[in-house]
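re: ur msg from earlier - yeah i can do the pyridoxal-5'-phosphate complex, just paste it... oh wait u already did. ok heres what im feeding in:
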Amino acid sequence: MAAHIERVYLDHAATTPPDPAVVEAMLPYLTTVWHNPSSIYVEAQAARAAIDRARATVARLLGANEGEIIFTSGGSESDNLALRGVVAASTRRGRHVITSTIEHHAVLDTIEQMEHDGTAEITRVAPEPDGRVAPEAIEAAVRDDTVLVSVMHANNEVGAVSDIAEIARRVKARNPRTMVHTDAVQSAAHLGVHVDRFGVDLLTLTGHKMYGPRGAGVLYVRSGTPLQPQILGGGQEERRRAGTEDTAAIVGLARAMELTWERREADVAHERALQERLIEGLPRRIPMLAITGPTDPTHRLPGNVSCCVGYVEGESILLALDLAGIAASSGSACTTGSVEPSHVLVGMGVPEDLARGSLRFTLGRGNTEADVDRLLEALPPIVQRLRALSPIPATEPAEAWRPWLA
Ligand SMILES: Cc1ncc(COP(=O)(O)O)c(C=O)c1O
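and the outut:
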């Protein structure tokens, strides 16, 4: 029998393990109170009451009113609803939308389809080389007919945190009728997320990046924001999102948020210490490795360590790491069999050949120093072995890589 290898999970930006307290809170709604919350008998009323309590919790934590919270199936649906919903409800005012080139595909692909259909005209703003979106660049793109600006709070690949409050302030100063949406899926577990402090009209969250369940998300919609529902068929969520509610998932999401908000300070301190160890250790042990994303820790998600390894495909490293018991991810979107370099890294200006060696390690509550050290020990020989197999001699960095290797 193969020897048992202790697994190390370094992919919290992909999804987080559900907190046992979350699972416990959900269980009654899978076992005894499983009834349709829209029905009229007592069991259904208990399910309805649980959803009401969850809505009150989510609203309180975000600084919102209960009527401003729409429960969805997750981040992708919330992003889709925000973009399509606002634009469809604003046609008399215009159809211009501004976004950044490094959004999650839930935003980018939706917007691309809207552009293709002719329902929206898009301005895409490139980020700074560290992955942050400059408020001035967004401001400069705002027009009289701009109906929506959508910029993510923190990027899922490089962890760059943009100043959403400043972006919203500048957009509103230019055109008070432009709605501002932010995808806060990645930041909510780590940073304060508050709708008034951000000054946004719409905000996306998902349960499974906050130690909650898959299949539950939130779209915050400020009162008075134009929004056309995109899933039709029932009166749920005040007619803004049809479909029988998943009571257990909604309860789990709210519980996960509560715990996350309570634990944030401790979680962040823990993740920052591990992050520092990794950011410091990787380039020292591996030549021609570039840490990507902000160098200033206050501009970077505490759990994120992203890098590019010259002369190696990120995917090959990930397979070798998996065999060594370490689960991580790369920034690459693996489509149609060919590995395209990440749109985020390319958008930041990272040379494509360097971007092909991208890796993303995202730390969480359960990680330890020993996990980081396992990675720091496992990675150098893997890189060395793969470089030795490379047809290109991996002796010197390419000229274009130099600014990124600093
Ligand atoms: C920034 C961002 N937005 C949206 C999503 C999609 O969320 P969900 O998986 O809940 O649909 C993700 C998930 O990876 C994400 O990282």
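cool cool. Residues 74-76, 79, 104, 106, 152, 156, 183, 185-186, 206, 208, 217 surround pyridoxal-5'-phosphate (CB under 6 Å). ping me if u need the other ligands too
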